[in-house]
Hints:
alpha/beta, Rossmann fold, five-stranded parallel β-sheet, 5 helices, 5 strands
Amino acid sequence: MATGRLISIIDDDPSQRAALAGFVRSLGYDVRAFPSAEDFLESGELGQLACVITDIHMPGMNGFELTQELNLKFDSIPVIMITARTESSLEERAMSNGATFFLRKPIEADVLVCCIEKVLGE
């Protein structure tokens, strides 16, 4: 895995955020975790990003809005959108909003690794 590649994780659920951050960090990536899209956007690290993993449903700015914002400012930051919700329309909406991958919680570790490796070209 490529050390030095920054992956940001945005999830309002503290336990989910910590678990994802710990797992991705264990793969050798630099990780920053944020409780909200607003905190992430204010972090000053946008120019250093290799990938974003974001929950869809969060208070304030949701994952769809965040992805649209990133697509307006940067055209090459891959976004992996995640959700615990089961509505069938969410995947189509995520992909049409510019997500690179869409995953449902609970996330299988090998599937997440595969998605990260694909978006980072590894």
